[in-house]
# Entry
Amino acid sequence: MNRICQLFGIEYPIVQGGMIWCSGWELAAAVSNAGGLGLIGAGSMYPEILRDHIRKTKIATSKPFGVNLPLLYPEIENHIQIIVDEKVPIVFTSAGNPNKYTAKLKSNGIVVVHVVANTKFALKCVEAGVDAIVAEGFEAGGHNGFEETTTMSLVPLIRKTVSIPLIAAGGIGCGKSMLAAMALGAEGVQIGSRFVASVESSAHPEFKQKIVAAKEGETELILKNLVPVRLLKNDFYREMKKMENERAGISQLVEHLGKGRAKKGMFEGDMITGELEIGQVSANIDQILPVSEIISTLLAEYRAQLALLPKL
# Structure
C-alpha cells in the first residue's frame, strides 16, 4: 500500500495545501470527503477561529483531516494546545525548525509532517522524528525557499537523502504533474493553487477569477531580503519590486508591507493593493471547479498518462 495513504488513512495520496486565507473548514472537509487529505490553514486564524474551523470540519467529514501550522505564527502555543485538545490527528508544520514542536505533537498521538525546501532541513526533519516530509519546490505559491530549487530537482535530491515518506509540492495541479512527481521519488503530492480556485475555497471570488485569468510569467518570487514569497503581479507587487530594486532596507520593506496585506488581497478581494499569493501552476488553471471534480479529473489524468508510459 502507498505509504502516504497508509500514514494518513486516506484513499488517494493527495494532500491539499494549507494556504492562508484560502483553506477553511469547507475546503478541508471537501478534500477529505473526496479521498484526499484536507488541511485547515491555521496561519491566518486566531486561536478560537481555528477551534471553530476544526469543530466544523469534524461535523462535515468523518474522514481524516489535518491542520497546517506555520511555526513562526505568534500564537503558536495556543494553536498547539487547541490542536491537542480537539484531537486533530495530523499536523503539517512549516516556516520554522521541526525540532521545536514535533516531540510534543507526537507525544499526543499526532502524525507530524514538515515542509522543507532543501536537503539540510530534510535531514533536520529526520532528526526531529517527523513522520513524513513535504519537498516544496520553487514553483510553489506563497512563502518559499531561498535556494530557488525547482520541484524537478528538489524531490530526487531529498529522496536520495532520506528514506521516510515523501510528498512533492510546487507546480503540481494535474494528473500528469502528479505522475511526474511520483516518478521522481515522491509517494504523494501536496496541491495548493489548484484548490484555491475551487468552489469550496475561502478565497475571495475576485482572487479566484484572477487566478483563472493568469498567464505564463504572471507570478514571481520576491522579497528575498525579507521572506521570499511568490505573488501574482499587481500594483502592490510592482511597488515592492521597485523598492527591492532600489535596495530598500528591511525596515522600509516591512513598513510598506504593513499588516493584513494578504488578507486584503486573497480574502477581501483587493486585486490592486492586496498581496496575492499563488503558484506558477496558476497559468494552467482555467476553471473554478468543485473539489470533487478537481480530484476525479486529476486521478483520471494520472491513470490515463500512466497507461501511456509503456508506449514511450
